[in-house]
Amino acid sequence: MAEAAPAPVPVPMPHVTDTQLVTPSITVQRPSIEATLRSYYSALDPVLRPVTDAWQALRERRKALNLPNLGTVEKLQAEVKMVQTTNFQFEGARADLTKALSMNPIFQVTHAFTLAGVGKNAYNFGAVYGDNMRFYQAGLDDTGNVTMRLNRSWMPGHISKIQAQLAPPSGQTFVQMEYDWQGTDSSMNFKALNPSPVNGTGIYVANFLQTLTHRFAIGAEAVFQRPSPEVEEASIGYLAKLVGDKKDWIASAQWQPQGVGQFTYWQQLSEQVDVAADLQMIMMQQRRDAQATLSARYSFRMSSLRAQLDSLGKLSSVYEARISPAFAFTFSGEIDHLNGDSKFGLGVSIESGSEAMDPTLPPPVPPTVPM
């Protein structure tokens, strides 16, 4: 009889403690920032692609038209203002003493004296420095008013500007910041007057001028005023500019929705003579008024004569003559026929350099400062 197979001997299992248990881990790899952005823009591509294609097509079409830049909104009436006597008139006696320390870069100091009767006498000390990238100007008068102007060009067509006036407690203190951009066929400007980052008060202005043809440009100007946190006011004005084929005449129009309009016209009659006309109208419910001005300028080699007549009966004239490269005098006069009033002024200007110039050598070329 065969023997039975021995029963298998059970092998004792080793005791496994809790610390010896191994839990399987799953590693989740987070996508990188580049992959997240790529996925985000890929999702927006069907929406953004038509917009970017249309913008690129518009840029190519504008580039093919080769349209010029017809100026900025700030200088819309620049030619008219150069003919008028408004910015050149003064009363009493005036003397300007200028010391040029350098021509390139420009560095000069000025002493200005004004005698215009009791309470109108003034003295101002000013300094100017400028080169191709920056322009600095500062002034201090006898009443303690400090004025300054800083312009900085970052790249062609991009200029930052800061103007400030620090006055005594009885005066007016303000700060104005600007950013000016000029493209090949358009210009844009942003301006903030006394901005407050705390409560958002101040005056904010944005304007834009776009050339549509080689002679015509249109634009708009938006103004937001917030003198206090409780008071707000906003308005949008429109403007247009038309230039002649030979750039011998310029017409401009500007209209505000409150009912204020200005229309100007400038024409170059010859190399020595140019004329200008200005019409300003106020068409509000509580006030309706208009004023027209006609002016002419005669430019000669060493002198110029400006004459102006307005609808209020004022006749004014400013005559500037340069006797020598370092000496010039100015005569200003205004007669108000309706009110029987008159104003006259006489001024002299003396300039001197830091060192004598050789007459056999050409004069140094001043830099083109960012204005």
TrEMBL record:
It holds the Pfam family Porin_3. Keywords: Membrane, Mitochondrion, Mitochondrion outer membrane, Protein transport, Transmembrane, Transmembrane beta strand, Transport. It is a multi-pass membrane protein. It is found in: Mitochondrion outer membrane. It comes from the Eukaryota. Its main location: mitochondrion. The keyword Transport applies. GO terms for cellular component: mitochondrial outer membrane. One of its GO terms (biological process) is protein import into mitochondrial matrix. GO terms for molecular function: protein transmembrane transporter activity. PANTHER family: MITOCHONDRIAL IMPORT RECEPTOR SUBUNIT TOM40. Belongs to the Tom40 family. This is Tom40p.
